[in-house]
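Run log, item B.
One chain of 290 residues. Sequence copied directly from the ordering sheet:
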Amino acid sequence: MDMASDKWKEVNMTPLSEKKLFLFDIDGTIAVGNTLYEGTRPMLDYIRSIGGRAYYITNNSTKSNADYVNKFRDVFGLETREEQFITSGYMATRYLLHRHSGEKIFVLGTASYIHALQEAGLRVTESPDADVRCVLAAYDDELTYQKLVNACRLLSSNDIPFYATNPDLCCPVDFGFIPDCGAISQMIVSSTGKTPLYLGKPSPEVVTLCQTDSGFDDARTLVVGDRLYTDIACGINAGVDTCVLYTGEATPEEVAHTPYSPTYAFADIQSLLDACLHQSTVPSTRSALP
């Protein structure tokens, strides 16, 4: 069936043409790897033309906000500001500064992310030291078996909190998918019986931070992503409209049976842009599942 089908059901939602604040997931939604999806650039041009704002809410914690600004400029040719990126790593940093400031924290993550935590003023270690007060697991494309062993040693030997940046099981790449933080964390869960508190999406605070910075309210906000249990759940938890794109993990079959039902569903970001441009006469609606 046509995944970009223009079928609609009446519900009490704000039309896409009235949206001003767009919160985009990155991997599988607007890009994959170093490839920007067709339609992304025109979508961002449209948002600027209506006086709106675009933010990028990603559960990829391998990069800092500064890293993303550099990638968007050097790889995608897009100018952005650090404030436009809300990563699961950033959300974890905020949480740890509030709950564990001054305490030693064991982190399973990339060198870039560990450096960002240290720059934020957190006491971080990669060793299973006796005075560690919590464990944080992140998406780590530099993962070693010893890192897993150290995390398991700490959680098995001590009654300390276990955190993880995000529950995503897989991350989109050009050939398909690779294990994400949720999959890495599940290895630790299976070995220790300890379940982490996830700090990134689907936390509604991700949406709240973008709204506070931009000044737009719930009715003008749209969360756009490719994953139901993080991206769409994040928008639902925040009480705003959501849009799933079928360029990443989610499929129409999954959307038809998910508890995280999106407000809108489109084949890709170009189809979303087309709907924003042509929905001015459409009442508050919800896309019918293809």
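Observations after the first pass:
- The mean pLDDT is 91.
- The CA atoms of residues 1 and 290 lie 6 Å apart.
Flagged for discussion on Thursday.
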